[in-house]
Write a structure and sequence with these properties.
Radius of gyration: 40 Å
CATH superfamily of the largest domain: Carboxypeptidase-like, regulatory domain
Number of helices: 1
CATH class of the largest domain: Mainly Beta
Number of domains: 4
Structural class: mainly beta
Strand content: over 45%
Helix content: 10-25%
Number of strands: 42
CATH architecture of the largest domain: Sandwich
CATH topology of the largest domain: Immunoglobulin-like
Distance between the termini: 107 Å
Length: about 575
């Protein structure tokens, strides 16, 4: 009896658990079904509302069309339009509590079926009507358009009118469609103020344009430059292009070019400071450690004498620390390595706590086996990781009668350039819009501005052109890229202007490779009189160095992967020196 009782109790508990799971599953299924039905209902509601609005927009468009068709042919036109009439170009109407914007565009059409050019006695054959109705639904603008035509009962002469045709292309002379075209003229028979768009061929034509002067035209497109005709003014008394003139029975054509806007970033700065750590081996004070090498006669060599030189030795430089914000530039070594001897160089960095490790191969390829050819670029070293380095020179010989000798070893670095703020500049394009009273050109783009406190000026709304960039109060040591500022459509140009004070004499060194490519970050050392200075070329391969006096100067150039170069040059005023390095 007891076992049966316990069994029944267990069965009852189990049945209650199944009932709970089934309830949860049932509720879940009901929720899924309900949510699906709700989503369907919501979609159906939205579609229904949107369809009602669209139907209303259609009715509004039909109302406007029927009103137009009820008008005499000569009265079919828009206020300040071509052809003119009493129909508003833009009107807001309300239906069922919702606002609809109605845009009406009417223009003459020159049908080629009855001839064209001088063989066409009537350039305005009929009128095309476009009704566009705009409305909003859930903050999104919807549009409905309707196009139809109306024709006269019989051919009528259109006196006192001609054709105004406007063509818009991009910088490459490719037609641009969808360009907003605004035409205004308040001096003709009926005032004109109309806005429309170019077709796929970049053309908008106005047959039936009243004969007369003063047609002002402005064209533009979002993200593009603009173009227009210009009225005469005190500063531009001879504009070009000036407002158009339409002659009766003739076609007046205007052509404009617009294209995508570009971005120009200008930075004004000083020349980056340059530094070198040089060891000419006058003594051992710049060596941290050495083994089987010695310093004598201004050179590092293997210990011993001819016939008994050590087979291998090394010397480690003292630590070199990069100044804050600096960048390692070039490792250079000079000396002799007779046949059977080698000199290799390794770069070590302080990994922490004074423990120096070799710079990894993925940062400095060839460092593990040793760098043989110098100058060698160190610009891949990271300032926050490899801020303190040492150079290990490995000397070896296979013949105890000869030894390699190292006469000079140096490492160069550059500091980050210092911005120059609030520099007064001018930027003037080459495109003109007329001439002044003295016959001097009036430029479309001619602005004056100051760089920011951080030496930066930027615009992202500048059109394609060649621009002259001027600076007040400073001498332009280098413009990189070189001037003028040539902008192509839809491009970004970063223009660095390195500035210095006025000077009577300066040496400008331009360093190129054998193919005529500029060589950035080449070390240039200039010696003469009391001058012994070094600088690196900028990103455009140029080095500018002010000098206190004219004279003859010794110039040496060191660039990674190229032989060391040395020459002399006479300097008087600003002197340019072109240096070509061949591997």
């Amino acid at each position: 009896m007891e076992r049966t009782h316990h069994g029944d109790s267990t069965r009852c508990v189990h049945q209650r658990g199944v009932s709970l799971v089934e309830s949860i599953l049932g509720i879940t299924i009901m929720l899924i079904v309900f949510l699906a039905l709700y989503a369907s209902f919501d979609v159906a509601t939205r579609l229904g509302a949107l369809n009602r609005l669209r139907t209303t927009a259609l009715l509004v468009a039909n109302e406007r069309i029927e009103k137009i068709r009820a008008l005499p042919y000569d009265a079919v036109g828009t206020i300040a339009g071509l052809p003119p009439g009493e129909i508003p170009q833009v009107e807001v109407v309300t239906r069922n509590g919702h606002d609809f914007t109605v845009r009406t565009f009417i223009q003459y059409v020159d049908d080629p079926a009855d001839g064209s050019g001088v063989g066409d006695t009537l350039a305005a054959d009929y009128k095309r009507i476009k009704i566009e109705v705009l409305y909003t639904y859930r903050s999104a603008t919807q549009a409905f358009s309707y196009v139809t035509t109306v024709a006269p009962r019989s051919q009528e002469a259109l006196t006192g009118a001609g054709i105004l045709q406007i063509t818009v292309t991009d910088a490459a002379n490719i037609p641009l469609g969808g360009v907003t075209t605004h035409v205004v003229n308040t001096t003709v028979a009926t005032s004109v103020d109309i806005t429309t768009y170019t077709n796929a061929q970049g053309i908008v034509s106005f047959p039936g344009a009243w004969a007369g002067t003063g047609y002002q035209v402005v064209v533009g497109k979002s993200g593009y430059s603009g173009a227009q005709t210009y009225n005469a003014s005190s500063t531009n008394p001879n504009p070009s292009p000036s407002p158009a003139t339409v002659a009766e029975g003739f076609t007046t054509g205007l052509m404009f070019k617009i294209d995508r806007l570009s971005t120009l970033n200008i930075q004004t700065r000083t020349w980056p400071q340059h530094g070198r750590v040089v060891n000419t081996f006058a003594d051992t004070s710049q060596l941290q450690a050495r083994a089987d090498t010695e310093v004598a006669g201004g050179a590092l060599a293997l210990t011993g004498t001819p016939g008994s030189y050590a087979m291998h030795g090394y010397a480690t430089s003292t630590s070199m620390t990069l100044p804050a914000g600096g960048v390692w530039n070039v490792l250079y070594a000079s000396g002799t390595a007779p046949i059977g001897t080698t000199m290799r160089f390794h770069v070590y960095y302080d990994s922490g706590g004074g423990v120096f490790l070799p710079v990894p191969e993925d940062v400095l390829p060839g460092n593990a086996v040793g760098i043989i050819f110098t100058p060698f670029s160190l610009r891949d070293l990271e300032d926050d990781v490899h801020g303190t380095i040492r150079i290990v020179a490995d000397l070896a010989t296979a013949d105890p009668a000869v030894t390699p000798t190292l006469d000079e070893l140096y490492v160069s670095y550059e500091h980050v350039a210092t911005p120059i703020g609030n520099v007064a500049m001018t930027l003037r394009g080459s495109k003109t819009i007329g001439t002044d009273a003295g016959g001097n050109p009036v430029y479309k783009y001619d602005v004056s501005f100051l760089s920011s406190a951080l030496g930066v000026w930027q615009t992202n709304t500048i059109e394609w052109d060649a621009y002259e960039l001027g600076v007040s109060g400073y001498t332009i040591a280098s413009a990189c890229p070189s001037l003028p500022v040539v902008l192509q459509p839809d491009t970004t140009r970063d223009q660095t202007m390195t500035l210095t004070g006025a000077t009577s004499h300066a040496l400008v060194v331009n360093v190129l490779d054998g193919d005529g490519n500029t060589l950035p970050h080449a070390d240039v050392q200039v010696k003469g009189g009391t001058t012994d200075l070094a600088r690196a070329t900028d990103s455009c391969g140029t080095m500018y160095l002010p000098l206190s006096s004219s004279g003859t100067y010794a110039v040496s150039v060191t660039a990674a992967s190229f032989p060391h170069y040395a020459t002399t040059t006479a300097v008087s005023g600003v002197t340019n020196l072109a240096v070509t390095l061949v591997p």
